[in-house]
Amino acid sequence: MIRSLLVRNIWDENQVLRQILGICSLLAVTNLVRNSLVMGLGLIFAVGLSSLTISYLRNYIPHRIRMIVQTLIIAAWVILFDLIIKAHLPEISRALGPYVGLIITNCIIMGRAEAFAQKNPPLASLLDGIFAGLGYMLVLVIIAVIRETMGFGTILGFNVNFLGLETWTIMVMPPAAFFLIGVLIWIVNIIMARQAAAGGGERG
Amino acid sequence: MNESVRMVVVLAIIAMVSAGILAQVYEVTSEVIEENAARALESSVYEVLPGSTAVNIVRVSPHDLVVDEPKEMREKEERTTLIYEGVDGEQIIGYAFVGEGNGYGGTVRVLVGVDQKTDQILNVKILDHAETPGLGSRIEEDGFRDQFKGKSVQDPLQLGEDIDSISGATVSSRAVSEAVRSGFDQASAAYKGGN
Asked: What is the count of structural domains for chain B?
């Protein structure tokens, strides 16, 4: 079960590449690998624990107010994360600025709560949330590695521009993430289509 | 139980529990966060006033304000300029003050350290900003900030005149020179009108 959850969340139904969720934060933080890593960790923490909490409470929450309750729980966990990094990792908290608070509005969390945690047991929901966050972080880091290398000639702050090539300012700006994510989705779609045609995938 | 009553009760309980937990965590972390901020500002003062071993906070408020009402008290608080005095034993190394400028992503706050004897800038440090990471945020780099060293209140401190902007980050660069200028003006005004 763990394996199928992992594969589904990272590849088959990757939140960013397949569901096109979480794009706003992707545009904002992916010009540096470090910020992308922390943002990804924040999301893993927030989705995992929100899904866990929502799954525990799923039988007590009246159906009609479930979304208000989900938002409330998500907001509580995100504020908790924000307070903790503000207190213990002030440098990174400064670098991420308002984006941590904006995790609350990240559609991925709400999506996992509605699509999975609402109808599955707590442990599975926790794993589903963590894997969904991992899938998001993976895409963020791929984009960030390309943008940081081309925009600054560095990776995680270390110089990798050995040839002394000109760096591209556009890669630092949010639109670059749009181009890159478009190309990445394109590539993944081609691979998926090939897999389906080969009869390997159950779905198209 | 009636369906709508149940909704209200469940929502109220969940809201109370999460508020309670957050209040508890806030209680614990707020102290650390404030301490961090205070320590960051103090260590920034040491950075812009090299050689200092202690920092005194000087509050300069305009004399023309008579304070006998809470409203005036607030106004006085707003118009009070905080000046940080870096000392080494008996000797005053210099003064540091905060200045603000409008950047691309919000307010840019800088701390300016000025030598007590020569009235020249010893160093400028960016306290906080919300500029584009990797582009506007390069105002934090030494190469840009070092341009302010040795400048005094008589210098224009203008982009294009005595300060070169970072290519691709003109607005952020201007915010810093503006912030240094406004900090200077405020601090000198406070000194003239104050003590």
From this structure: 1
